[in-house]
Specification:
alpha/beta; 9-stranded mixed sheet; 36% helix
Length: 234
């Protein structure tokens, strides 16, 4: 059992976070993520999850394709990741539901806020798929939107670096930011989350927390408030 800092969370996992070296999905790592999410749920945390789809397809990968079509392909790719995660959770003995932004029965149920909150309070891990359902919006934006709608206490961003810096640390000296506001993210043109997501967070909240995902225990540390990372405030 973990001691959580939050009652209700929304966790953003990139597609790259679950990608395998020789395949689209690292199923062993996804199974470990599933067990971690179940542990959090069994500790009384209401867990929402949203996946990116960079392991399969990004809208901007479409080259000369029509951007709307390319983005729709990306939204469908998030459904694939979400269904794989649901399967992993159920196989590990947990309860999960996939809610999609557009109607996709029989593969998943259609998202409504009431349906999501009901599932969360019932102890199910709720996986939000299909992005916002509209092109030109990233899964960062879909994640902050769902976090606002379900009144999550925090939007947790699992990343490949340990937080947000004032410049790209891969390109030279950069200062780590323990705390930054959504407004500062926009004014400094920081890339921790995209501009639209920052604008929504600035107006509506909730707070976010960006941390590095190396192992699934990093998720538990973030939920417990014991992880190194950057707090993004309203």
């Amino acid at each position: 059992m973990i001691k959580s800092k939050y009652k209700r969370i929304l966790l953003k996992l990139s597609g790259e976070a679950i990608s395998g070296n020789d395949g689209i999905i690292d199923f062993d790592f996804l199974d470990r993520i599933a067990r971690t999410l179940i542990e959090a749920a069994n500790s009384g945390v209401e867990v929402g999850v949203i996946f990116g789809a960079g392991n399969i397809w990004r809208g901007r990968s479409g080259g000369d394709m029509d951007r709307v079509t390319a983005d729709r392909m990306g939204m469908l790719a998030t459904v694939i990741n979400s269904l794989a995660a649901k399967d992993a959770i159920i196989r590990a003995g947990g309860k999960a539901i996939v809610l999609t932004s557009t109607m996709m029965e029989p593969y998943a149920e259609y998202y409504t806020t009431d349906r999501a909150v009901e599932a969360l309070t019932d102890g199910k891990i709720v996986i939000f798929a299909g992005g916002t359902g509209s092109p030109y919006f990233s899964t960062d934006t879909a994640g902050i939107l769902r976090a606002i709608e379900i009144k999550a206490d925090v939007f947790l961003l699992a990343k490949n670096i340990d937080g947000i810096y004032d410049s790209d640390p891969r390109l030279g000296a950069a200062n780590f930011l323990e705390t930054v506001s959504y407004g500062e993210m926009m004014s400094m043109n920081l890339k921790g989350i995209d501009l639209t997501a920052s604008a929504m967070g600035s107006e509506f909240g909730p707070e976010a927390f960006a941390f590095k995902l190396e192992d699934t225990d990093d998720i538990l540390r973030a939920i417990s408030g014991e992880s190194r990372g950057t707090a993004i405030t309203k």
